[in-house]
Amino acid sequence: MHLMNSELFTLTYGALVTQLCKDYENDEDVNKQLDKMGYNIGVRLIEDFLARSNVGRCHDFRETADVIAKIAFKMYLGITPSITNWSPGGDEFSLILENNPLVDFVELPDNHSSLIYSNLLCGVLRGALEMVQMAVDVKFVQDTLKGDSVTEIRMKFIRRIEDNLPAGEE
Amino acid sequence: MADEALFLLLHSEMVAGLYRAAEQGEGENGRCITKLENMGFRVGQGLIERFTKDTARFKDELDIMKFICKDFWTTVFKKQIDNLRTNHQGIYVLQDNKFRLLTQMSAGKQYLEHAPKYLAFTCGLIRGGLSNLGIKSIVTAEVSTMPACKFQVMIQKM
């Protein structure tokens, strides 16, 4: 039963990406769309996350990284990415995904070489963190779908969002 | 294992995203329901393929419908279909009194017109699942009071 559940998510995500590839002419637009949808999911998912995880306020970006990798990824995707490649300033790190559940049954056709298949994840992380006053930049730098040995998501802290400002985007 | 909350949010954002794009004239206009239905169809096909790998062969059509109402529905929506009715001539009505993809919406009547958007994916899901079990069908849905809904399956004889 559990297995089936993860397949439901993976297959549904796959159907979405396939549909977007039909709707938009170039991969960049699909990437943008996936990021936007991810953002909208992230801003709502954070509420569920805070309610269920009992995680308190993070004191620094390292703690945030830990919470994302060990609690959030585990809770929602059943995997625990490792955290590596910290920048000297401690404002940038990488999440290494050995197995990305989103790509379980996926192969990229040749004519979609610029497609960032799992780009939804970047949007989710950006959206969720924005709701806890952190502006971050999130992008894929390695992807097993493109022949890399692991999937790597790079996260960069940009700034703290002041409480009294409305959330910036969309 | 992916979490249910994530699936629910993905589904509602899929609906919202398609409609947003159609309004802005991106993508093709006005075919959102069909697109959602087609996406569901693909997912239904894939799921049933993996799910029936180790199950015994089905006796007949009714046996397949029961499987959809129990096992299939439980894995996808965490509950069984509440009522299955048939005229024994190829029409089945599956009633879910608390349909998972509608429970997050307000029950007020003013949202009733938006309900079809949130049912199209599931219509496709049923049609896709049945199609992979060798049954060609047309699936439609209707809501009279949220969050209850009925899916009507019309078997197409080949």
TrEMBL record, chain A:
Which keywords describe this protein according to UniProt? Endoplasmic reticulum, ER-Golgi transport, Golgi apparatus, Lipoprotein, Palmitate, Transport
GO BP field? Golgi vesicle transport
Question: Could you tell me the superkingdom of the organism this chain comes from?
Answer: Eukaryota
Which Pfam families does this one have?
A: TRAPP
Question: Where primarily located?
Answer: endoplasmic reticulum
Q: Which Gene3D superfamilies match?
A: Trafficking protein particle complex subunit 3 (3.30.1380.20)
Localization: Endoplasmic reticulum; Golgi apparatus, cis-Golgi network
Q: Say if the entry is tagged with keyword Transport.
A: yes
Q: Give the InterPro entries listed for this entry.
A: Bet3, NO_sig/Golgi_transp_ligand-bd, TRAPP_component
Q: Which GO terms describe its cellular component?
A: endoplasmic reticulum; Golgi apparatus; TRAPP complex
Which family does the record claim for this protein? Belongs to the TRAPP small subunits family. BET3 subfamily.
Q: What does this protein do?
A: May play a role in vesicular transport from endoplasmic reticulum to Golgi.
Q: How does it assemble?
A: Homodimer.
Protein name from the UniProt record: Trafficking protein particle complex subunit
Q: Which organism is it from?
A: Athene cunicularia (Burrowing owl)
Q: What is the lineage of its organism?
A: Eukaryota, Metazoa, Chordata, Craniata, Vertebrata
> In the UniProt record, what gene is named as encoding this protein?
TRAPPC3
TrEMBL record, chain B:
Q: Which GO terms describe its biological process?
A: endoplasmic reticulum to Golgi vesicle-mediated transport; nervous system development
Q: Which domain of life is it from?
A: Eukaryota
Q: Which InterPro entries match?
A: NO_sig/Golgi_transp_ligand-bd, TRAPP_component, TRAPPC6/Trs33
Which SUPFAM superfamilies does the record cross-reference, listed alphabetically? Ligand-binding domain in the NO signalling and Golgi transport
Subcellular localization, per the record? Endoplasmic reticulum; Golgi apparatus, cis-Golgi network
* Keywords, alphabetical: Endoplasmic reticulum, Golgi apparatus, Neurogenesis
Gene Ontology cellular-component annotations: cis-Golgi network; endoplasmic reticulum; trans-Golgi network; TRAPP complex
Task: State where it is primarily located.
Answer: endoplasmic reticulum
> What task does this protein carry out?
Component of a transport protein particle (TRAPP) complex that may function in specific stages of inter-organelle traffic. Specifically involved in the early development of neural circuitry, likely by controlling the frequency and amplitude of intracellular calcium transients implicated in the regulation of neuron differentiation and survival.
Family listed: Belongs to the TRAPP small subunits family. BET3 subfamily.
Name recorded for this polypeptide: Trafficking protein particle complex subunit 6B
| Source organism of the structure | Dromaius novaehollandiae (Emu)
> What is the phylogenetic placement of the source species in the record?
Eukaryota, Metazoa, Chordata, Craniata, Vertebrata
